Amino acid sequence: MSQKLLIVDDEESIVTLLQYNLEQGGFEVVTAMDGRTALQKAMNESFDLIVLDLMLPEIDGLEVCKQLRQNKILTPILMLTAKDDEFDKVLGLELGADDYLTKPFSPREVVARVRAILRRSQPYQGEQKASHIKETEKITIGDVEVHPENYEVFLSGKSLDLTPKEFELLLYLINHKGRVLTRDQLLNAVWNYEFVGDTRIVDVHISHLREKIEPNTKKPVYIKTVRGLGYKLEEPVKE
C-alpha cells in the first residue's frame, strides 16, 4: 500500500509540481493551500508525512506545526520556507518539525528528502534496525523504558509522546551509552545526510528529549553535555 502524504503550499505551481513528482514516486498525495484546511485534514486523516510551507494564509505553517504537536499528532513534518533565515528554521524545529528545505529546491530533492524521512521514521524494520537491539527487546535506562518494536517510550510507567526523530535520537544515544557523540556524528547518524554543518537541529532535538525525560533540565542526569565535544547518555546515578 502506498504511503500517504499531505502537501501544503499556497503556490499552486509548487503544489502541482510536488504532487506530480511525488505521485510518480509512488506516493498517494493529498493537498491543501492554506493552513486552516491543512490543519483540518491533518487532524481528521492519517498521513505518513506532511510537507508544510511556513508562509501560508489563514494559519501559518509554524502554528499548524505547533497545534499538531499539541494534539499529539506526531506525523513527520518536512518544512518548506522561502526564507533563508536561521530563526525560522530553528523555531520550526523547536515547534516539532523533523526537517526543513529552503526554497528554491528541485522536485527530485524533495522526493529524496521525503523518502529519507520516511525511511528513518521506521528505523527498526529490515536493515534499518539497530544492529544490536533485538526486535522485541525492552531497554531500560534509569526510569526510562524503551520498546523499539512498538516505537514507545515510558518514564516511570507513563507513556511519552516523542516525534519519530526524537525517538530515533534517543535510541541512538542508548545504543552508544557512555560514549561521547559529536553533533556531526548525531547529525549524520540520525538524519542520514549532511546539513552542511547545521548542527543546531541536533541541539534542538536534544533539548526536546531533555524536557521529556529529565527530572531537571538544568541538571540533566541522562543526556549530558560534554563541553566542546557533544553529548553522551549515561545511566543516572542512584542516590
Description:
This protein has 239 residues and is of the alpha/beta class. The chain folds into two domains: 4-120, 3-Layer(aba) Sandwich (Rossmann fold), CATH 3.40.50.2300; 127-233, Arc Repressor Mutant, subunit A. Helices cover 38% and strands 20% of the residues. It is elongated and about 60 Å long.
Descriptors for this entry?
single chain, 239 residues, alpha/beta, Rossmann fold, Arc Repressor Mutant, subunit A, 2 domains, five-stranded parallel β-sheet, four-stranded antiparallel β-sheet, 12 strands, 38% helix, 20% strand
Short structural summary:
By secondary structure, the protein is α/β, with parallel strands linked by helices. The protein contains eight helices and twelve strands. α4 (86-94) links the parallel β4 (77-81) and β5.
**Cα Rg:** 18 Å
How large a portion of the residues is in β-strands, by DSSP E? Answer: 15-25%
Under the CATH scheme, the architecture of the largest domain is 3-Layer(aba) Sandwich
Number of helices: 8
For the record, the CATH class of the largest domain is: Alpha Beta
Main sheet characteristics: 5 strands, parallel
- Order of the strands making up the biggest sheet: 2-1-3-4-5
Q: Identify the quaternary structure here.
A: single chain
